[in-house]
Amino acid sequence: MAELIFMAGLGAGVGSILRFFMLDQLTRVSQLSTSWMVVIINLLAAFGMGYLSGLSLVLPWHTMVTTGIMGGFSTFSTPINELAQVLGNDDQSKRKLVLLKTGIMFTIGMPILILGRHFGLN
């Protein structure tokens, strides 16, 4: 059990660094807001999670790359936090935008995860 916890923690650190690097690089080349970049990163993470779950990795490595790296790379807490903030807000346009981004992540994320798994299995 200690080995799995270590592998997950190590992977989470790697995933967080990858997310930070990717956000930094996207900011330099894109006009997208950070919150839209988070949507893109989470969709990439969904594909990656699907792909990796389709591979036949042994348990410690599976834990490191799925729970660890992909968990650290994705950041579903950011859109959920945005959603919680706008639900009590009177700004309808901001609320609609946050609902749109959250909807995109969860409705498009699932087919992307399934597509990634298909590639991982084949």
UniProtKB/TrEMBL annotation:
Name the domain of life this protein comes from.
Bacteria
What does this chain do? Fluoride-specific ion channel. Important for reducing fluoride concentration in the cell, thus reducing its toxicity.
A single GO cellular-component term from the record reads:
plasma membrane
Q: Which UniProt keywords apply?
A: Cell membrane, Ion channel, Ion transport, Membrane, Transmembrane, Transmembrane helix, Transport
Q: Where in the cell is it found?
A: Cell membrane
- Transmembrane regions: 6-22, 34-52, 58-76, 97-116
According to Swiss-Prot or TrEMBL, what is its membrane topology?
Answer: Multi-pass membrane protein
* Reaction equation(s) it catalyzes: fluoride(in) = fluoride(out)
Its main localization is membrane
What is the name attached to this protein's record? Fluoride-specific ion channel
Q: Which family does it belong to?
A: Belongs to the fluoride channel Fluc/FEX (TC 1.A.43) family.
InterPro entries hit by this protein: FluC
Its GO biological process annotations read: monoatomic ion transmembrane transport
User: Which Pfam families would you find in this protein's record?
Assistant: CRCB
